[in-house]
Amino acid sequence: MQTSPAATVFPSGPSNLFYQSRLQRPTLDRAEGIYIWDREGNRWIDGSSGAMVANIGHSNPRVLAAMRAQMDRATFGYRLHFANEPAERLANLTASLMPEGLDRVFFVSGGSEAVESCLKLARQWAVATGQDSRWKVIARHPSYHGSTLGALAVTGYAPLSEPFAPMFTAMPKIPAPTCYLDRDNYTDAERGLRYAEMLREEILAQGPDSVLAFIMEPVGGASTGALVAPDSYYARIREICDEFGILLIYDEVMTGAGRTGRFLAAEHWGIRPDIVALSKGFAAGYAPLGAMVAARRLVEPVLDAGGFMHGYTYAGNPLACAAGLAVIREILDQDLTGNAGRMGALLKAEMTALMDRYPFVGDVRGKGLLLAFEMVADRETMTPLPREWNAHARLVEHAYARGLVVYSRRTRGGIEGDHILVCPPLIVTEPQIGEIMERLVASLDALAAELGL
Ligand code: PLP
């Protein structure tokens, strides 16, 4: 049993550091595989891979060795002055893992920067090819694409974007395909098509010549709790984009690098996006790294027209790229993508069995090891629990006190719900899934007792 988190906070006095809230957590000491220890020796299972980042687990010796070797040579070289081998090799390896034609790689330091890069490359491509009227990027609600102002413009999550509304141009949104909430007589395939048609309607309403791109998370992350659309949705969205010459941007910041059981989630449906954003699992937390991967046909006109007017000091940092290269090799050599598929199926089955035990578990969803469950007051109607109960955050605390880290949010569609993401590193084993479930069940029991559920 863990000691209370408050007992292990370090430093004990006031700190100058601040994050989003006043939440205080114990100080990290070390981490290995799927486990994390604090300074008091308490151990947690990293049941959410941080924020769905630590895909290959912590302290992987091969990645650490690659980083040490690079550190002994050079940790920084500015891209306008020197090319560097780790960046070149990582770009080539990444391109080799993409769908046909998606072979130009641009490095950044995180997911928000990757999304910003996608938006700006798309716009510059339009200008370079004489399509100046195109600038609107249609997105979905709810969705999460990052914290910077450009990424917020396409993010459909009001609490994050509202305070800054005067500071950017909000982009048009269509509903995310929250089919699990729909109580109608349509089949799943029909629902998928109906949600996809909303894109077509929005394009027509906006004026097709003004629309530049559509951006989506192929499997939702924090915003929707691992929302997966019916298969019919994905192909129809691609068709609609093609009909109007609109670029399809897949934000695979969370889904990419194997998390859903394929290297890109796009592969599940055989979709070829025009631009892809990657980060999180791409360097798995060993370095701040992300990438935009774009079709050559988009990049060449931009470079010909004078260059991509966008870049970051740390783009292609040799140490970050050496880490990313070793991470991707580990994913390939250990077949962690395959393991995500196998272990994901097992974990999902165990999570689905929670519905027999807890009437307030209303839905279990996701792909590979990007999994979530949603807690509701009534499963039939999917009525959410009262907001003021803060059930998702309470469950996170119950789990935390039992040595399990999970990730939660409260939001969905126009209404609200509590969802919990259970997304361990892709190296997770069957016995470790047992450990996760044991702690999760104890946490759900504690929540049920606390809230009288
Ligand atoms: N896009 C998606 C789908 C995400 O899940 C996130 C982060 O959670 C981001 C973009 C932003 O990434 P970052 O926090 O690295 O800026």
TrEMBL record:
CDD domains for this protein: OAT_like
One Pfam entry name: Aminotran_3
Cofactor: pyridoxal 5'-phosphate
Gene3D superfamilies named in the record: Aspartate Aminotransferase, domain 1, Type I PLP-dependent aspartate aminotransferase-like (Major domain)
Entry superkingdom: Bacteria
Single GO MF descriptor: pyridoxal phosphate binding
Keyword NAD: no
Keywords of this entry: Aminotransferase, Pyridoxal phosphate, Transferase
Keyword Protein transport: no
InterPro entries per UniProt: Aminotrans_3 (IPR005814), Aminotrans_3_PPA_site (IPR049704), PyrdxlP-dep_Trfase (IPR015424), PyrdxlP-dep_Trfase_major (IPR015421), PyrdxlP-dep_Trfase_small (IPR015422)
Similarity-based family: Belongs to the class-III pyridoxal-phosphate-dependent aminotransferase family.
Protein name per its UniProtKB record: Aspartate aminotransferase family protein
